[in-house]
Amino acid sequence: MSGARRRSPSLQVCSSRFSVHCAEAMSGLDIVAALSMSAAIAFGESLAGNVVGLMYASGQLLESFAEGRARREMTALMGRVSHVAMRHGASGLEEVAISQIQSGDRLLIRQGEVLPVDGIVSGDGAALDMAALTGEPLPQPAPPGTEALSGSTCVGAAFDLVANRTAAESTYAGIVRLVEAAQARKAPMVRMADRFAMGFLVLTLIIASAAWSFSQDPIRALAVLVVATPCPLILAVPVAIISGMSKAAGIGVLVKNGGMLEMLARVQTAVLDKTGTLTHGQAAVVDIRTTPPFTAEAVLQAAAGLDQASGHVVASALVRVAAERGLPLSRPEGVREVPGTGIEGYVDGRRIVVGGGGFVQRTSGCDDPHELIAPEMRASMTVAVAIDGALAVMIVLKDQVRMDALSVLNDLRAAGVRKLVLASGDRTEIAESVGKALGMDSVFGDLTPEAKVDAVRKETGNGLVMMVGDGVNDAPALAAADIGVAMGARGTASSSEAAGVVLLVDELAPLAKAIAIARRSRRIALQSVSVGLTLSVGAMVAAAFGYLQPVEGAIFQEAIDVAVILNALRALR
Fold first, then answer.
1. What structural domains and CATH numbers belong to the chain?
2. Which of 98, 108, 83, 112 is nearest to 165 (CA)?
3. What angle do CA 481, 477, 344 make, to 5 degrees?
4. In 55, 89, 191, 341, which residue has its Cα 20 to 30 A from 562's Cα atom?
5. Confidence of residue 161 (pLDDT cuts 50, 70, 90)
6. Checking DSSP bridges between strand 381-387 and strand 350-355, what pairing results, if any?
7. Cα 537 vs. chain centroid, distance in angstroms?
8. Of all residues in the chain, what percent carry a pLDDT higher than 90?
C-alpha cells in the first residue's frame, strides 16, 4: 500500500495478543479496537497504533485490579478454609485432617483458630468472631449447648466443640462451594453491555465512513476509530456487578451470579415461607392430646423415632423433645416422606404415620385428628400421629415469629418490593394468624410443594417474583421463582442448590440490605455504560471534524475508560 510505513515489532505483538483476546471475547467494542489498530497499521500511523495497544493493555491491568478489588470479600471467604484440627482421642489430643472428622467427635478449638466443622459448644462456652459469615464486627458469645458454625473464629479462650456434621456437610464448606460457583460464572448483564457495544460498532462505522467521505482524509476516519476504542468500558459492567456481589457477601448474603444480582435489583413481589423463614423454625411442644390406650411418652418415642429420617424443622423439634425426656429412639425402616406434608414408616415393627392432620387421616385411614384439638388451639401448629392405622395423638407446637420479621418486611417494602405474600404448608388458620400480625398482602395456607409453585407462578404477572424459603418442600418453589432465596445457615442443601441467593446467617435482615445493594450496583453499571458511551460519541464527532488526532483521541479515550471503571467501583461503598 502506498505511503505505508514498516510495522513496529511492539505493535505486531500487541496486535497479535489483541487478536487472541478478540477471538475469545467477540464483543462489539473489541472489534472497534481491532479495526482501529489495523487501520493505524494500514495508514502508517505506527505511533497511534502503539498508543492504542498500550492503552488497551493498561485497560486490562486496570480491569484486573478493579475486579480483584471487587472480589475482596468473596476471596476472603475462600481463604479461611481449615485443613487440620485437634481431636480428643483415646490417647489424648491428636492432629487430624478435617476430612477425618465425624459427627460426635470432640475437638479442641484454640484461640485464633477457625472452626473446621459445625458443632455444639461444650464446656464454659466460647467467644466467636463471625464477621466472615455475617459481617458482624463484634465477637459473639456462644453459651454451652449452642450450635457454632464452621468459618467462625475463636477469639476467646480455647473450648471444646462436639462436631454434629462432617466437614463436607458443614455450613462453611457449602458456602465455599457456592462462592466457587459464583466466581466461575460471568454476569449476564455483560450481554446488555454487548448489546450496547454492537450498536456502538455500527454507529462508529457510520461516523468514520462519513468523516472519510466528506473530508477525503483517511486520518479522520482513523481518529474516529481510535477514539471509539473503549475496551475497558464494557468491563465496567461486570466490575460493578461483582462489586455488588462482593458487598452482599460481606453482610452474609451470597448471590450466585450477576444475573441473580440484576434480578434482585428489580424484584417487585416477595413470596415467603413461614416455618424457618418468618419464624425461627424451632417449634416447642406445648400440649400432647392422646387417645386411649396410648400414652404421651410412648407416642412421642415412636413419632420421634420415625422423624429421625426427616429434616423438617417440626421433625427436629420432636426428636429434640424426646432426647430431653431421655427417651431411647429406635431406627426407622421403610420410610416414605412427602416433603412439607408428612412421613410414614415402621418403628419397632409398628407402622407409624406423622404429619398434618389431613395427611395422617388419608394415609392411615384413622379418625379426624382435629377433633382432639380444643377450639382455642386451632390456630396453633399441630402434628398428628397414627400407629397401626389408629389415631394416637395430636401434638400442639408453638413456633415464635422472628423478632425482626416485621421490621424486615418493612425494609423490603422500602427497598422497592411492592407486594408481600405468605405461602405456608401449615394450616390456613395458622398462616392467616401470622400473616395478619405481619401485615402481609396475601396469605395462603395448606400448600403442598406443588401448590407453592403455583402460588409463585400466579404472582409473575406483577413483575419479578422472589421466593424465600428454607426446607425441602420449598426447593421447587425456589426454582420456579425468578429469584429464589434460601435460608442457608439452617436450611436444607436442596433449597440452597435450587436458590439463586443464599442467606449465610439465620436472619432475614441482610436480605433487604442486599436488595438495596443490588439496586445501587445495577444503577452504577447502567450509569457507567451510558456516560462512557456518551463521552465516546462526543469525542468521535470531534475527531470526525478534525479536532482530535489519533494519538490525542487514544489518550482521551483512555481517560474515559479509567473514569467509568473507577465509577463502577463505587458499588463497593
1. 102-165 (2.70.150.10), 258-280+401-499 (3.40.50.1000), 284-398 (3.40.1110.10)
2. 98
3. 175
4. 191
5. very high
6. antiparallel
7. 38
8. 16
Expressed in percent and rounded to 5, the helix, strand and coil fractions of the chain are: 50, 20, 30
- Indicate which residues carry an active-site annotation: 273
Rounded to an integer, what distance in angstroms lies between the CA atom of residue 295 and that of residue 291?
8
Q: What is the Cα–Cα distance from 193 to 156, expressed in whole angstroms?
A: 49
| 0.85 exceeded by pTM | no
Beta-carbon contacts of 162 under 8 Å, excluding residues fewer than 6 positions away, are 104, 105, 106, 107, 119, 120, 122
Distant-in-sequence contacts of 311-315, Cβ < 8 A, 24+ apart: 311/471, 311/472, 311/492, 312/339, 312/340, 312/343, 312/471, 312/472, 312/473, 313/275, 313/276, 313/281, 313/282, 313/283, 313/399, 313/470, 313/471, 314/275, 314/283, 314/381, 314/383, 314/397, 315/343, 315/354
The three cell numbers locating residue 154: 475463636
Count Cβ neighbours within 10 Å for each residue of 209-218 and write b for 16 or more, e otherwise.
eebbeeeeeb
| pLDDT tens sequence across 334-383 | 999 887 788 999 999 999 999 888 889 888 888 888 777 766 666 677 88
